[in-house]
Amino acid sequence: MTKTFALKKGVNRSLNIMFGDFCYVNRHTHYAQYAPLAIGLIAQYAKQKFGNDIKVSLFKKADNFLDQATKKPPDVVGLSVYFWNTALNQYVVKRLREMFGRDVIIILGGPSIDIDKHEQQKFLLTTFPGANAVIANEGEIGFCNIIQKILGNRKTVFKEPIDGVSFLDRNQIIQGRPVGLTMDLSTVGSPYLSGLMDDFMHSDYQPLIQTSRFCPYTCTFCVSGKNRGKLRGYPIEQIKEELRYVSKKYADRPYHTMYLVDENFGILKRDVEIAEAIKKCKEDFGYPQSVSFYNDKRFTDTSRKVLEIVKDMTQYGVTLALQTENPESLKAINRRNVTEEEIDDAILWAKGIGLETSTELIFGLPYETKDNFIDVLDRSIKRGFDNVAIHNLLLMDGIEMNRPGFRQKYGFKTKYRPNATHYGIHNGTFFAEYEEIPISSNSFTYEDFMEVRMLNFMFFTVFNIKFQKWFFQFVRHLGISLSKFFSHFMKPDRSVDWPDGYLRFLDDFKNAVEDELFDTPEEVVAKAKEIFLANGNDVGEPTRINMNFGARL
Fold first, then answer.
1. Distance (Å, rounded) from C-alpha 20 to C-alpha 421?
2. What letters, b where the CB count within 10 A reaches 16 and e where it falls short, cover 431-468?
């Protein structure tokens, strides 16, 4: 028999649960929207468990969410928090409290939730003081444990610890038994096949598919690095059916990419069978034409078989993300890379079947110096990678490296910069997202940071937008270090008589890099608001320094 939820007014009805995985919608983000798979899976599991006792709805746009909440007030709200939608979520939580007071229960999950109790306490006290609870790692079990409590007796929900959930009691964190990575994926149905995701499949949202969960690598700079658990896969027949369902839905929009959000696709032997199923979907429905995924970092024979099957569909070819090769840095970030022999073998194999190879490097990691970093850049070029991407280290909620002890140990000094065009206004309230990056540490200076930032630009320009790429390949084969070439190009001897346009270009680049760095988040928000108002209440152009100056070059 269907249970009902007793409201204060004495009316009985199903519990109204609203989920949000919010994004910014503007002219620059229009084609970078993704189906809300994470909240879809939690909503799917909750519906399986509670049936007609609950009603669920999913939202990507905060405007639509708040409009619906005004018409049909929620009893429970579940929000996914990431570093690119934190301010947007803060605004929504504030509005919910203004509209409904404590009548609505607000639960937060997503990559930004740390497993550390002190970080959880800070998150609930300062970042989201309006929220009731947080759930770390996988959300299905913890969220349903809260719903079970609410359906039993709402007044006593947060009186005792709840498995998989953390909340505050008199400003002290109360943690239930951790259950975050124990979900039996055979018990989670597909939100695609149930129709829960249909509203996001007739639009410009890109489809996300998950075939397995858990990353066995414990990198401290990554939101997945804090997780400890077991690698698990969804039932393979369910995955195949899901792939066919999604492919049929997107057959009229073959330009959309299918994103596999496994953290290491190709880590399980059965991924070969899944790759075959994806290829069959392309043959049968004309979709997908392109597939995006992270291959297994170890790049085993399984990864190779997967890529052989989808080689004409994969966006990135073979990616061996090294991040760093400094032994001290690797130890500090709990990472072990593939060996030099494995790298050379993988590059040779990829070239043999016509796939490009790339690596990703992060500057700013513990113990990393400018010289060490330039050494790995030069080695990456000598090895024959087709693309070398340089990233700044980001410090964000949900990674171990963001914790105070880690920051202090390595002497991180940071600045803040805008997060693309992730800003906007609602009912007169302006909010904006930002990124925090180390600009110096115990092992590198601000001047080192600026020099690597210049190299970042040159490597992007040559390897991503192909500026004189073959010339620089020729230079490399002459035995000339590209990093030294680029460094001299970006930092010439000014006592020599250079063209004014060249020097102006260098000065403009340096000013652009420094102008996007701010001392506080509040300064980033104020600058974004200034741009927004100057554009008639619309976003301006994203900085895109590398792209803009690459085009100018």
1. 20
2. bbbbbbbbbbbebbeeebbbbbbbbbbbbbbbbbeeee
Backbone φ and ψ of 347, nearest 5°:
-65, -45
Closest CA to 289 of 248, 252, 258: 258
Q: For residues 343 and 325, what is the distance between their CA atoms, to the nearest angstrom?
A: 12
Q: How much is the pLDDT for 227?
A: 81
Give strand pairing partners of 107.
78, 133
CB 471 within 8 A of CB 486: no
> For the residues of 130-145, what is the DSSP string, one character each?
T-SEE--S--HHHHHH
HSE-CB for 242 with a 13 A CA cutoff: 23
The string of DSSP codes covering 221-233 is TSTTTT-----EE
Mean pLDDT calculated for residue range 175-188: 92
Nearest 5 degrees, angle CA 546-CA 551-CA 553? 90
Q: What tokens appear for 81 in the block?
A: 């928090």
Count Cα atoms within 13 angstroms, Cβ side, for 513: 21
| H or E element at residue 437 | strand 429-440
Residue 527: name the closest of 432, 439, 437 by CA.
432
**What is the sign, positive or negative, of the torsion defined by CA atoms of 521, 514, 112, 440?**
negative
Strands 318-319 and 291-292: unpaired
For residue 501, give the H/E element and its range: helix 500-515
* Distance (Å, whole) CA 196 – CA 237: 19
* Residue located via tokens 């001299």: 488
- From residue 411, alpha-carbon distances to 25, 330, 440 in Å are 37, 17, 8
Do the beta carbons of residue 475 and residue 485 sit within 8 Å?
yes
**DSSP label at 337?**
P
Q: In this structure, what token pair is assigned to residue 540? A: 């301006």
The tokens for 91 are 């605004």
* Contact indicator for 17, 54 with CB cutoff of 8 Å: yes
> Which region holds residue 335: left if phi is over 0, alpha if psi is between -120 and 50, else beta?
beta
The vertex-106 CA angle with 54 and 224, nearest 5°, equals 100
Measure the CA–CA gap between 232 and 267, rounded to whole angstroms: 11
Q: Which two tokens stand for residue 404?
A: 């105070």
Reading the block at residue 523, the tokens are: 């300064």
Whole-number pLDDT of residue 12: 67
Question: Cα 464–465–470 angle (5° rounding)?
Answer: 90
Of all residues in the chain, the percent with pLDDT exceeding 70 is 98
Residues of 282-306 as b/e, b for ≥16 C-beta within 10 angstroms? beebebbebbbbbbbbbbeebbbbb
Task: Tell me the C-alpha distance between 538 and 405, whole Å.
Answer: 40
> Is pTM beyond 0.85 here?
yes
Q: For residue 384, how many C-alpha atoms fall within 13 Å in the half-sphere facing its CB?
A: 13
pLDDT in tens, 383-406: 999 999 999 999 999 999 999 999
**pLDDT at residue 1 above 90?**
no
* 410 DSSP assignment: H
